[in-house]
Amino acid sequence: MPSSKLLRPEPAGRNPGIDLLRGIAILLVVLHHLGLRIPLKKTALADVFPTRLLSALNFNGYEAVFVFFVISGFLIAGNALRRWGSLDQIDMKAFYARRFARIVPCLLALIGVLSVLHLLGVQDYTIKGEGQSLPRAILAALGLHLNWYEGQTGYLPGNWDVLWSLSIEEMFYLGFPLACLLLRRSWLLMPVLLLFAMSLPWTLAAIEGNEIWKEKAYLPGMAAIAMGVLGAVLVAHWRAPRWAVHVLQWVGTCGLVGIFIGMPWFWPLLQDGVMLLLTFSAVCVLIACQLRVREGISHPLPGFGWLRRWGRLSYEIYLTHMFVVYAVVRLFHALGGDMRMGWLWYLPAVPLCWLLGVAVERFVSVPCERWLRARWAVSGRSEAAPIGVLMD
């Protein structure tokens, strides 16, 4: 893990609980992509730890992305309420400028690197599926329909594949300010968002015969984002008693831990409804974290500063971690591929993902965003980014 010397002090004004939740989620995504190739349950760790626990570490990446969706809706709506007072007062130009400045520099850099690797024929980065091509992949990534493109043609190489969630988020946020301005009244907007959020199990169940599209379709992901938006509106208008804050925190935490560890037991009972329980649990944690900060009772958990730092870098790590995963897995197989010792390869892979995220933030994200904001006279750091990444 990153050493304490490399970690920055906790930035003023940030919510440590939300950073921690984001850090857990992005770590689960990284462990998922490592686990697909080097499963912990097949290593010597299975002699020491329960297989269920090892599988929970490796195979909750998809659920973690839905947690990110909820975080994104919560942060963007909450920041819009603080900035403009109400959702129907959103300044569309400023809203889209902030999104562009935070998202596009890293996205363009990633697409540029992946395009060069494809043209050079580098293994693991060459697009060669039937009906797939580099120009169409670029168009899908920039046109916010890479999820649909994969649903039609199959999975793209891993570094392209991670952009499916970006397509869902940014499609939601293209329409979000318009919906707020058109509906104008909270008593109209809130029921629409509530119905949207509650529709998650049914939008998932309605998709049959295409597992990729079921996993990456627009409506389920947008339903999770809507859950986060509802949470932000509730926080803005609710003066909760302290006991309610504690209840929300424990309900949400127990729900998330229960789903991450006990998915095989929850699924037969709830089927697709388990994802609604997941998003509800996530928004409970977020509401509790925000209320604790507002009431002045939030204190960062000692020893988890490194994980909060992962949360603050989650956009950069999400976009780039597959470079590390591919390199580590290739080296693992080149040196014999002893699966029993496979767990040892996680030790360099995890901190390397973090260090690559640090480099991208320092040399791409921050300078590009500052330049764009100065050029467009947009004040303040971006308050949110794809997959629920807050940087302010």
- Terminal CA distance reads 24 Å
The run of helices and strands is: HHHHHHHHHHHHHHHHH
Oligomer: single chain
> How many beta-strand elements?
0
Provide a count of the helices.
Answer: 17
Largest sheet properties: none
The chain-level structural class is: mainly alpha
Beta-strand content bin: under 5%
Which radius of gyration do the C-alpha atoms yield?
A: 20 Å
Uncertain segments are 1-9, 381-385, 387-392
Textual characterization of the structure:
With 392 residues, this protein is an all-alpha fold. It has one domain (16-388). It is built from 17 helices and no strands. α16 (314-334) runs antiparallel to α17. The longest helix is centred in the C-terminal third of the chain and has 31 residues, at 346-376. It is globular, with a radius of gyration of 20 Å. Residues 1-9, 381-385 and 387-392 have low confidence and may be disordered.
Features:
392 residues, disordered N terminus, mainly alpha, globular, 17 helices
Question: Outline of this structure?
Answer:
The protein is an all-alpha fold. The protein is 71% helix and 0% strand.
Task: Summarize the topology.
Blueprint: H1 16-35, H2 51-58, H3 61-84, H4 92-119, H5 134-142, H6 146-153, H7 158-161, H8 164-183, H9 186-198, H10 200-205, H11 211-216, H12 218-237, H13 242-270, H14 273-294, H15 305-312, H16 314-334, H17 346-376
